[in-house]
Amino acid sequence: MDTALLVGYLASTCSVSSFVPQVYKVVRTNDTKAISTGMYCLTVTGFALWTIFGVMRTEWPIILTNSACFFLSLVILVKKLRS
Q1: Minimal CB count within 10 Å: which of 38, 40, 41, 45?
Q2: Cβ count near 74 (within 10 Å)
Q3: 71 to each of 5, 32, 62, how far by Cα in Å?
Q4: Does position 5 have pLDDT exceeding 90, yes or no?
């Protein structure tokens, strides 16, 4: 594995890991008062677009990271919209 790909996978791990505690807390408590709906709409859109970009370029670190972050941020957005 080349160095750039290793850096990509390490960055992916950090990015996805940063969302997990927030998703866990929101799912456990259903507390989304402090979360901005607009920011999460933008975040979900950004992750969707990055995923599409990664697919178009066949860049697996980009695809894996952004599709995972898309799903995690979508969970939070759905909880926010339902509260």
Answers
A1: 38
A2: 16
A3: 23, 17, 14
A4: no
